[in-house]
Design a protein that fits this description.
The complex is a heterodimer of chains A (269) and B (331).
Chain A lengths: L2 H22 L4 H6 L1 H11 L14 E4 L5 H11 L39 H14 L6 E6 L6 H12 L5 E7 L2 E2 L2 E2 H4 L5 H7 L3 E6 L3 H11 L7 E6 L22 H10 L2
Parallel strand pairs in A: 1-2, 2-3, 3-7, 6-7
Antiparallel strand pairs in A: 4-5
Helix pairs in contact in A: 1-3, 1-4, 1-10, 3-4, 3-9, 5-6
Chain B lengths: L18 E3 H15 L3 E5 L9 H6 L4 E3 L4 H14 L2 E7 L8 H10 L5 E5 L17 H6 L5 E3 L4 H13 L4 E4 L4 E3 L14 E5 L5 E5 L3 H14 L4 E5 L2 E3 L3 H11 L2 E8 L4 H12 L4 E6 L9 H7 L4 H15 L2
Parallel strand pairs in B: 2-3, 2-4, 4-5, 5-7, 6-7, 10-11, 10-13, 13-14
Antiparallel strand pairs in B: 1-8, 6-12, 9-11
């Protein structure tokens, strides 16, 4: 697929996110809108996977650590062919497979239960360690938010991945600079994430998180590194594509009402 | 008297009874399990010697992960390994795992329903000299509150080995509580053991009271039963090693037979074995219950035996509780 086609898919994903969260009446639009390109790049150009055979043992694994952006993940999974699009509008409803945060065993394509922050990278490290023990060559990808870098548990896993030189592990950071209580640099300063990961002995890349080609190229480069895990810091705009949501932390965890959803969908046309 | 089918050691009431710690059983059983099951892996949080998995780390270095003092990641990394297909055992002190990493265990192991085995070492008062900060008297309560989790407090060395080997195969998140001190090995390799099934290890002809215990307190309860027998008080002693799922059938039957229950555990009274037994009986067959347990207080530095005495978890305290419950029964 061309970059143009992938960008178009990302736009469709954004529309789905708005529809899903509006219908659910709760959820996290800003982060979800911001990671659309990262997830489209993963499922359409990076992951070695087969939606027709989700349990294929040799598949690459993707762990969503910041589980609250799962509307974006659900929309991409459905778009890639894991399940029927009709399911999307059941998000957060009683009995839905689309739980407010991802639950393993519920929905095809969801590798693990996640959402409480700071726990996804540890799980990804476990998968990378276990598969390497067995001489497997598939790769493990994990997406985290920047806010969850407040969690000590995340840094425990960062240390461990470097210790074991997990070159089969690639971490994406959605660097959108917001979290629930405000701007990350006001809540608990994280800069420079780049320098921090360098100091932790990771291979570090920084890209425009809305540039699918740049994301795919960074992953290609990561595959050439054999003695370190790679982190790709993706600079993104929270709420991307919807002017009144962009860069506003107030939209971290607030659902658009019907009128706001209509305006958002209008902008995303 | 001891039912024959329990196949307890002949030395059960002798001075020369063999002594070993339950933590030693973990180390031995894991090496045994690893020989026949290549999915078994071990992770520790800077406590390989204290949790007795150093031997495993030397025999199977490629299946051993040292995470450092990082209990939260200990749990989530094990979750990832189990999700992939391994059977990870994570070892630390109970105060840190499941103490510090309870939420990681809940989300990434229990809710995720992956077969990670959590070994909580130095539980109860067995971190004696280290003081109250290290003495975990709350683990049974926090772990049994968790859906999908199996909770086991084995009574001795032999039983701990069986618990570990069964946990390898049970495909469920499982917590096994072990201790530092050497304890009498009163069961044998041939004694019956199944996670979830309580064993009647002492049964008089006309028992007036059922003593239901777990962990090291099962042996204390046997000693109490023997003394009580001499005083003409007939008992049942139940080894309730599995706190969750608890063996309702055996507990209800023992309450129906005796009409009075004493529970014994090296754990806070709030939320442990006594609470679990009370829940079963309150719903099904209410009888007077006395609880021999720690009464809402922390430990402190001291020798294990001194702490057990101070907090009233010895044979004498069990006998006292039996007398108390019998008074209430006869009202």
């Amino acid at each position: 697929m061309t970059a143009q086609e992938l960008t178009k898919i990302a736009k469709e994903i954004r529309k789905d996110i708005i529809r899903m969260i509006n219908k659910a009446g709760s959820g996290h639009p800003a982060g979800s809108l911001g990671v659309a390109e990262i997830l489209v790049a993963l499922y359409y150009a990076i992951l070695n996977h087969d939606p027709k055979e989700p349990d294929w043992y040799e598949r690459d694994r993707f762990i969503l650590s910041n589980g609250h952006v799962c509307p974006a993940h659900y929309a991409v999974l459905s778009s890639a062919g894991y399940f029927d699009r009709k399911e999307l509008l059941t998000l957060r409803k009683l009995g839905s497979k689309l739980q407010g945060h991802p639950l393993r065993g519920n929905l095809l394509g969801i590798e693990t239960t996640s959402g409480p922050l700071g726990e996804g990278l540890g799980q990804a490290v476990g998968m990378a360690l276990a598969s390497r023990m067995d001489g497997k060559h598939f790769r493990i990808y994990c997406l985290t938010s920047d806010g969850e870098h407040d969690c000590g548990s995340h840094w425990e896993a960062v240390l461990l991945a470097a210790k074991y030189k997990l070159a089969n592990l690639t971490l994406f950071v959605d660097r959108n600079n917001i979290q629930i209580d405000g701007k990350t640099e006001n809540v608990l300063p994280l800069d420079s994430l780049f320098d921090k990961y360098m100091a932790f002995n990771w291979n570090v890349k920084e890209v425009d998180g809305h540039d699918i080609v740049a994301i795919v190229n960074a992953v290609k480069e990561a595959k050439g590194v054999y003695d370190k895990p790679t982190v790709i810091i993706c600079k993104t705009t929270p709420g991307k594509g919807v002017s009144f949501m962009e860069d506003r932390f107030e939209w971290h965890g607030k659902a658009p009402n019907d009128e706001e959803a209509r305006l958002a969908l209008e902008e995303l046309k | 008297m001891i039912p024959k089918e329990q196949k307890l050691t002949k030395k059960v009431f002798q001075k020369g009874i063999d002594m070993k710690s339950t933590r030693d059983a973990v180390g031995e059983a894991l090496i045994e399990a690893a020989r026949t099951n290549d999915r078994v892996v071990v992770l520790t949080a800077d406590l390989k010697e204290s949790t007795r998995v150093k031997g495993f780390s030397e025999e199977y270095p490629e299946r051993f992960i040292e995470v450092g003092v990082a209990e939260q990641t200990l749990a989530s990394v094990a979750s990832g390994m189990a999700n992939y297909g391994k059977i990870p055992f994570i070892t630390s002190f109970a105060i840190f795992s499941p103490g510090r990493n309870w939420e990681q265990i809940r989300t990434t192991i229990a809710l995720n329903d992956v077969p990670v085995k959590i070994i909580g070492a130095h539980a109860g008062f067995s971190a004696g000299l280290d003081g109250g900060n290290h003495q975990c008297l709350e683990d049974l309560a926090i772990m049994r509150a968790m859906p999908n989790m199996i909770v086991v407090a084995p009574a001795d060395f032999e039983e701990t080995k069986k618990a570990v080997l069964e946990a390898v195969k049970n495909r469920k998140p499982t917590y096994i509580r072990v201790q530092r001190e050497v304890q009498p090995i009163f069961t044998s390799a041939k004694s019956p053991f199944k996670i979830g099934r309580a064993e009647v290890v002492w049964e008089d002809k006309n028992p007036q009271v059922a003593i239901i215990a777990c962990g090291a307190q099962v042996y204390e309860s046997l000693l109490a039963a023997k003394d009580l027998e001499k005083k003409g008080i007939e008992c049942l002693v139940i080894n309730c090693h599995t706190i969750k799922p608890i063996d309702e059938r055996v507990i209800i039957r023992s309450a129906k037979t005796t009409g009075a229950v004493v529970t014994v555990e090296e754990h806070q009274q709030n939320g442990g074995l006594g609470s679990a037994v009370s829940e079963v009986l309150a719903k099904n067959f209410p009888v007077p219950i006395e609880m021999v347990a720690v009464k809402d207080s922390f430990g402190e530095s001291g020798k294990y035996e001194e702490l057990i005495k101070k907090h009233g978890l010895r044979k004498e305290n069990i006998i006292e509780a039996v007398k108390e419950v019998l008074k209430r029964k006869n009202i």
